[in-house]
## 1
Amino acid sequence: MPTIGLRHRCRFRQLTRPRSDRHDTLDTCLEDRDAKGHVSNGDQAVVHSVNTAGPATHALVVGCGFYPHLPGGDSPVQCPDPDGLGQLSSPPVSARAVADWLVTEYNDPVKPLATLSLLLSEQQSSKYRNPSTGQVHDVVRATAPNVLAAVKNWYERADADANHRTIFYYCGHGTAQGTDTALILADFCGQPMNELDGALDFGKLYAGMERIKASEQVYFVDACRASTDTLIEAADFAGQVALTPKKRDPTLPKRLAALYYAALAGDLAYGLPGQPSLFTGNLLKSLRGAASAQDPAQPGVWKVDTAEMKKAIDYFMNRPIEKGEQVPVQVASVGELATIFFHTIPGIPNVPVFVGCDPEADNATVDFACHRNGVSVDTRPMAQIDPAKPEAEWEIELPAGDGYMFSATKVGGASKQNGPRPIGPTHGVVVIK
C-alpha cells in the first residue's frame, strides 16, 4: 500500500463558539505527580469543567505519540521487539484539535459539555490553554496508570445520571487481533517481560461501559487495527482492564452507542506528520457542518447526528489525496451505530465544496471564482496553484444556501460557468465544462 508521504500508526512503519453564559467555569486544582509523571491524587486530567444542571456530556480525550521505550524514545529501557512501532507526531496534535473543538464548538443545549479530561504523550510536553477560559493546565501524561485513573473518574462523573452522554477519543498506536483491541500507551514496553502492561484493553473498556448509567456513548478510535506478534502471543491479554464487563441494570434506559474506528479490522490508520490525522481531520470537517441536516421539527436548525457523521467521514476519507488520483488510503468503520443527535450547528453550516474542470488538466490553467447573487465570495487565481498538485480541485467551504455561481477563466481566454446552484451538506461537487 502506498504511503503517499504519510506515517501510519501500526506495527509496519511509519485539523468558535463561546460556551453559554449560564455555566460557571470551575477551576481544576493541580495535584502532585511522581517522578514518572503519574498522578498521585486528585483528577488532574480535567482541563475543562463547568457547572451544569441536569443531563450533560463528559469527554475523555487521549493522544499518544511519544513512546519512551520504542525506537527514538529516551528511556534506557528499550523494547526488545517493538513490532515496527516507533515515534508519532500526529496523535497529540489530533487530540488537542478534538479537545479545542469540544471546548469551543461542541453545542448540545440538552447535554452541554460538563467536563473534558485530556491526556497526552508528546515529544516536547507543553501545557494546554483552555481556548474558552484562557486557563493554562498542566497536561497529564498518557501512561497506563494515568489513563486508568482518568477512566475511573470519567466513569464516576457520567454515572450520576442516566441521561448523561460520554465521549471517548483515542489517537495513537493500536493493534487488534480478533475481538481484542489494544490501545498502546506511553509506557508500552516499560516492562519488557510484559509489554502490554502499558496498553489499554479497549474491548473490555467498551464492554464495561455497558453498566454505566449514562445511556448515550460515542467513541472514536483513531489507531491501526492490524495485528502484531505481541498481541498474538499475549493469549487473550490486550492490556490493562479499566472496567470489567457487567450486564446493564434493566431499569435503566437502553445503551445507545456509536463506535467509530479509523480503519477496518486488520488495516492501517495514517497520520500527517505534525498535523491532525486523516481520520480526525475529516471527523472535525464533518462536525463543523458537513454532517449536518435541518431538523424537520425545527426549520432552520441544523443538527449533526451519528449516522450522518459516518456518511460524511466515509466520503471525505475517500477523496483524492494527490493530484487527480483516487488513493484508497484507509477506510473508516463502525462497531455499533445508534443514531444520536450529537451536536447543533450555531447558525448556517459551512459545507466543503470541490470545484474542478472537465477535462481535469484545465485545473492547472484557469482562475477559479465563486459568486453568490452577483457578489464575489472567493477566488483561486493561478498564482495560488500548488506546484506539487497543479491539477488538484479547488476546495473551499461555503455556507449552505442557494444562488452560487462558479467560473473558470483562462488567462486571456473565455470563461466557463456552472450555476446558479444550491450548496448543502455533506458536500458540493462542481464540474465546469
## 2
Amino acid sequence: MPRTDNTDNNVETSRGAGHETIRELSLQERKPRSPWEIAWVKLVRHRLAVSAGIILIVLYALALFADFIAPYGFDSEDRTKSYLPPVRVRMVDAQGDFHWRPFIYDSKFQFDEYYRREYPPDKTK
C-alpha cells in the first residue's frame, strides 16, 4: 500500500499487505463508551463548567458547616453595640483552653483621654 498524504483522516502505513490503517486500528481497539462517560469528558474539557462546579462544591460545604462558621443566630444581636468595630474571632480563651466552636469576647464602652470611643475586650466572661 502506498503512503497517502495526511490531508484526510486515513493515515496508512507503507508496510505492505495485511496491515490495517492506524485510524482503523484505533477504532477497533477503542472501548465503547457510555453516554455518561461521553458527557463527563465533555464536561471536564469545559473550563467554565469546571470552575462553576468547584464554586458549587465550596458553597455546599459552607452550607454543611454553617453552624461552625456562623454559630450565632440572627436573634442574638445587641443593638446597643451597633457602633462596635469588628471583633476578632477566637478559638483559644484567656486561660489557653482550645474550643471547637469559635467565640468572641464581650466589649466594654469607654472613652480615652481624647474622648475617642474605645471598646476593650472583657475577658472575665
## 3
Amino acid sequence: MPVPDGSVWAAQEVPPSVVASTTPVPAHVEPTAQPTLGEAKATPASELSSVTVEDCAMGGAESVSAWSGSAWLAATSQRFDPETGCDTIDVAPTSTPGLASLGTGIALVPTGTVPLGYDVARANGGIDNEGIPWAGSAANRLPAGVHGVSLASDPETAGYWLLTSDGGIENFAAPWSGSPKADGGVGHNPVVAIASAPGGELVLRLNGGVDNFGAAWHGSLADRLPTGVHAVGIATDWATGGYWVLTSDGGVFNFAAPWYGSPKADGGVGSNPAVAIAADGEGYLVARADGGVDNQGTAWFGSLAGRLPAGVSLVGVAADGPSGGYWLLTSNGGVYNFAAPWYGSPKADGGIGANAVVGIAAP
C-alpha cells in the first residue's frame, strides 16, 4: 500500500483508493448566474420610515433570517402565508433587518438554510463576494509592502478571515483569536495559508509550521521538509479536528486526520506543482498549477488541466458541501464550477487589473 506522507492516523488503516468519476461533469465556463439568497435595496434609505418586503423564495421554510452584518438572525417581524408560500417582513429603524440595511442591501435566507456562495480575496486586501453577503475587507488599508495571502470562511457566521503577508489576520464577521503578527511576527518564515478549524483558525508557514489560534494543534512539518520543498496549503478535517498539510512536491501530511493518498504517492507532480488543498467531508482535493485536480478519498468531477490560457495558472480550490462539487480559482479572476453552482467571479465582474486574486473560500 502507499506509504503516507505524514503521521499515520491509525496504524491499521489502509488508505482508501482514489475515487474517480467515470463521467466527469464539465465546468460551466463563466456563465451568468444569480445568487440564491433574497436581496432588497433602496437608496436613499434615510428617507424611509418603514418598508415591507415580500419573500417568496422560501424553499419550503416558513420564516427567514436576515444578515445583520455579523450573523444570520431571525427577522423580528414577519408573517408567513401558507396559501401563497410567501413571507412578509416588516423593516423598521430598530428591527432585524433594520432600515439602515437598505442602503447596502438586505440579505434574506430561509430559516434553517446556509447561504451558498464563495468569497475571493485580492492581493490589496479586497474581498469579492459571490452569492453571499459581503462582510468587509482590508482593501487599500494594508501597509506598504504587505499584501493579502489567503482566505478562510467561518462556517458559523459566514464571515471570513484574511491572512496577510506580515502574519496579520483581519477578521470580518468572524471572531478574532490571535495571529502570528500579534505573537511577534513572521520573521524569515512567511505565512502561506489559513484554514478555519473547530474553535478558531490554523495558519501555515512556508517551512511547514502550523500556528493555531483558538483551534487545537496536532503537530507540523516545521524544519522537516527537504531542500527545495515548501508548504503550500492546509485543510481541516472537521470530523476529527485534525488537519492536512500540502507541500509543493504533492505530499499530503496528516495530523490527527485520516490519510487518503497524495499526488506524491501517486507518482509525483513533475513540473506541475501542487498549489492548494480543500477538504469536503469525504476526503480532500489537491489543485495543480495547470488547473488539474487530484481527488483523494472523494469524487472527481473534472478539472482545467490543459485548458488554461498562456500565462494563467490555478490559484485556489474550495469545496461546496451541499453539492459535493468544487470551485477552482484562476489567476485572472475566473471561478470555474464542477458539480457546484456558479455565483460569479471577479473576471466576469470586469477583471482584476493589477490587483491579483490570492484565494477562494466558502462557508
## 4
Amino acid sequence: MWSLVRLACAAAVDRNLGRQAVVAALSGKRRIFGCLYWWYMKRIGLTGNIGSGKTTVCKVFEMLDIPVYDADKEARGFLYRADVVAKLRRLFGGDILDAEGKPDREALAGLVFQNPGELKKLNALIHPLVRQDYEAWAAKQTHAPYTIQESAILFESGQYKVFDKTILVMAPRQVRIERVCKRDGATARSVEDRMRNQADQQELQSLADLVIHNDGKLLVIPQILRIHHELGGEHFQ
C-alpha cells in the first residue's frame, strides 16, 4: 500500500501537479490509482479519410467514458483568435479575411489546398496551438485510462509521432463516397475531388497501430471493445 502511495506522490511531483494533487493521491486507494493512471495515461490518435466514419467511432468510445478531443473542431476555433488572425493576414494577405476582418474559411481553404507550401504554413501556425490545448485538456481527464484525439490529418501532419498508439478507421472508397453524398448532399464528383487531397488509405494503414474496419459488413462495436480492452479500459474501474 505505502509503495503505491510513494509512487503516486512521485508521479504527481514529477508531473508538476503540486501539493494538491499529492494530497488527492493520498485520500484513498481509488485516487492513488487515478494519479498513477494520469501519469501513465495513454494518448491515442484516431483518424480516417472522409466518409470512413471516424466521428461515429469516437462517439462509441465516448459511450465507454473515454474522453475524445476533436482536433479539427478546436483548430477551426483557433482561426478566430485575434493573434492568429493577425498572423494569417501576414502569411496569406487580406484576401482570406471577410468584410468584418474575420477569416473566410472558404477562401482560406481554396488557397491552401491548392498550394502545399501554403498549407504547410497554416499547419505550422495552428498545430502547435492544438497540441498545447490538447495536452492541457488531457491533463484534466484523470478519470480515464486513455484519451483520444480525433484528427483528419493525423499522419499527414506528423502529429502521430507524439501519440502512444494510433487508430485508423477504414472503409472502401465507394462506401465512403456514398456516405458523404448522403450526409452532405454532395455530388460524387465533388467528394472524389476532396478525396484527392487526402492520403491513400493503404498508406495510412501501414502507419497505424490499430485499424477499425467500418465497411458496413463487419461489426464495428466488437472491434472497438477489443481495442478498448487492449488499451486497458476494462481494468480502470
